[in-house]
Amino acid sequence: MTIADTKRHCLFTGVMAATLALPLLLSTPAHAGQDRQPVPEQRYVVTNVASSDVLNIRTQPDATAEILTSLPPDAKDIIVAGTSHESGSQTWWQVVTPKGTGWVNASYLAPSGDNTTRETAFPLRCSGTEPFWGVNIADGKASFSTPESSEAFTASPMEWARGSLRHFIVRLKMGEASGQLTVLRASPACSDGMSDTAFPYEGVLVKPDGTVLSGCCQRAG
Questions:
Q1: Sign of the C-alpha dihedral, residues 189, 114, 101, 86?
Q2: Range with the lowest mean pLDDT among 20-24, 95-99, 109-113, 120-124?
Q3: Beta-ladder partners of 94
Q4: Continuous segment of H or E residues that includes residue 134
Q5: Taking a C-beta distance cutoff of 8 angstroms, is the pair 66, 201 a contact?
Q6: Cα-Cα-Cα-Cα dihedral of 106, 119, 96, 47, to 10°?
Q7: Side-chain half-sphere of 80: how many Cα atoms within 13 Å?
Q8: N or C: which end of the chain has fewer CB within 10 A?
Q9: Per-residue exposure over 93-112, b if at least 16 CB sit within 10 Å of its own CB, e if not
Q10: Residue 124 and residue 137 in contact, taking contact as beta carbons nearer than 8 Å
Q11: CB 39 within 8 A of CB 80
């Protein structure tokens, strides 16, 4: 093979390699953030938003839903509930704001800092179906409710399992009786069986009266 032939062969090989790689580049999602799952123990920042624009937080996981509030393009310390929702080709995450919880396109959120820091104390909300029940835990108190009644318990701080940031318990008391909420990071996500929302935690509640209930949990603040 002559030097000229060698050059032509190298050029042809390079063009073919680039041509074969092109479909792979084109098939790469424009928003890689949609492949990630939200981590409720971690804070997030806004990304991929122009300096002249804002990130809208909507009341529902839908680009046409009412806008609850918005975030500037350099917003930091964003709290995610850990819940997610698939809508067509888009993934939406629920975020916690002073105006309540809302939904943002996951493409525009990225982990804050070194991606290793985890919070170990925050408000929690759990609920279940058949029977329907819910419990909100914050500031040392647990408010339990069903469609028929409500109860109040005292709640301990989250107690994380040693060597793991995926499992924790909250101890509950009502007078002399005690109970416990056991929470496990769900993999895959927890489903309430009623909606298309994916929850970050599975929860098993043992009320102080001994009643055992199961459901899904999320960060609430």
A1: negative
A2: 20-24
A3: 103
A4: strand 133-138
A5: no
A6: -30
A7: 30
A8: N
A9: bbbbbeeebbbbbbbbbbbe
A10: yes
A11: yes
